[in-house]
TrEMBL record:
UniProt-recorded name of the protein: Conjugal transfer protein
Annotated source species: Pseudomonas syringae pv. tomato
The organism's taxonomic lineage, starting at the top: Bacteria, Pseudomonadati, Pseudomonadota, Gammaproteobacteria, Pseudomonadales
Keyword Membrane recorded: yes
UniProt keyword annotations, A-Z: Membrane, Signal, Transmembrane, Transmembrane helix
Iron-sulfur keyword on record: no
N-terminal signal peptide: 1-22
Membrane spanning stretches: 64-89, 101-122, 128-150
NCBIfam families: DotA_TraY
Organism domain of life: Bacteria
Length: 410
């Protein structure tokens, strides 16, 4: 039974080790990460313990700590030898009386393991025992190497634009995501009602559709409007800016904004459709369960900002601005010396202007042909009720907005 348990735990360990193997992490990788010459933790261990911290099992010269451990380990070895001989003699005498050598559940491995334990506390040439050298190896190689691998991975992720903590989303981004969700909620609620009226032959109002793409969407049927969403146009028109503006390529950020809005529209469109279908299923058949709309809205807003932030991280305008400054000052004369500061200031401002531009969203218009609107009112009331009772927890430092619902009290 114990053997089966051991195999079960071994299989479970292998299952959890699969992601590590997929990431090409092995002993050589960990050992290489621990051998950085400028690693401060490794330098501190060498300063205290000597070269035994670099290669614990290689012969090395005795140090102060090694000499002290040699005395301590020698005393422990003498005491262990006395204990070992005493227990051995006692066991032999007891075995002679009982007629069996291995009693009390002990096996043939017991004396071997006892002897191995005694060997582990014997001092080596450097003064350290084998048990202590194993601990030094675990700290200097496996411990330092594993910590360095984790640190390197975290630094690489931050270089790619990721953050070590979940960044709070801006209230304007969350409001835009909420508006897009409600725009699609309007579309599907009105369409489900119109489809029901079509089945009874009582409606000729066209269905609500979403048209557009690449950062601009309009939802309506040519008469009624459920809303629109687009990324704003950003520009700089000042006279001084026209003369000395920085030629910073923000097209990548603008493209990322368009892609982020496309993703947000697609995600929230599916969420709104599922919400309306679930409402009808609950109302008519008392089946199904709602997904938390507040969580979906907040996640969509966070995904939008993450996409834009990753694009911002790829902008490297310092090298290009240096050559721009040289030609600008030479062509415009000494009066253009002030552009040295202004160029970098406008570069930052231009980038910030683009990055801080959140989608512009308009809501539903009560004008036009959109059916009776009864189902829309019911669905919207259910949506508002769910938002007020949402269990979503916003990241620490989130600035709440008036329309955040339950997130405002999280």
């Amino acid at each position: 039974m114990n053997l089966i348990k051991r195999f079960w735990w071994m299989g479970l360990l292998l299952v959890f080790s699969v992601p590590v193997l997929a990431d090409n992490v092995d002993y050589q990788t960990i050992a290489a990460a621990s051998q950085k010459p400028n690693d401060l933790s490794r330098q501190a261990m060498v300063m205290i313990m000597g070269q035994v911290a670099v290669d614990p099992f290689a012969p090395s010269q005795p140090t102060l700590i090694g000499s002290l451990f040699a005395i301590i380990n020698g005393v422990l070895a003498v005491m262990a030898l006395f204990w070992f001989l005493t227990i051995t003699l006692k066991t032999i005498v007891k075995a002679g009386h009982q007629g069996q050598f291995f009693a009390g559940g002990r096996s043939a491995l017991y004396p071997i393991m006892t002897f191995a334990g005694f060997i582990m506390i014997l001092p080596t040439q450097s003064g350290w025992s084998l048990a202590q050298l194993v601990m030094v190896w675990a700290c200097s190689t496996m411990g330092v190497g594993s910590a360095n691998l984790l640190t390197d991975k975290a630094v690489d992720m931050m270089d790619s634009g990721y953050s070590m903590v979940t960044q709070p989303t801006a209230p304007s981004t969350r409001s835009a995501a909420r508006g897009i969700f409600e725009m699609n909620l309007c579309k599907y609620a009105i369409n489900r009602e119109l489809e029901s009226l079509y089945a009874d032959g009582e409606a000729n109002t066209p269905l609500i559709t979403t048209k557009g793409g690449n950062g601009q969407y309009d939802t309506g049927n040519g008469s009624a409007v459920c809303g629109s969403a687009k990324t704003p146009n950003t520009g700089r028109t000042g006279t001084w800016n026209l003369l000395f503006d920085s030629d910073v390529d923000t097209s990548g950020v603008i493209t990322a904004q368009h892609q982020a809005l496309d993703t947000m529209q697609s995600t929230l469109d599916q969420a709104a459709q599922a919400f309306v279908d679930t409402y009808l299923s609950k109302r008519d058949q008392d089946t199904g369960s709602f997904q938390d709309a507040e969580t979906q809205i907040q996640n969509a807003a966070a995904a939008y900002e993450n996409t834009v932030n990753l694009a911002l991280n790829k902008i490297d305008f310092k090298d290009t601005l240096q050559s721009q400054l040289s030609s600008q000052i030479k062509s415009s004369g000494w009066v253009a010396l002030g552009s040295w500061y202004h160029t970098f200031a406008t570069a930052n401002n231009k980038t910030n202007d683009v990055a801080s531009s959140t989608p512009v969203v308009t809501g539903m218009s009560n004008l036009g042909e959109h059916g009776t609107g009864d189902l829309y009112n019911q669905v919207f009331a259910a949506y508002k009720s769910q938002v007020q009772n949402s269990t979503y927890t916003a990241p620490l430092g989130t600035q709440t907005a008036k329309d955040d619902g339950a997130a405002a009290t999280a």
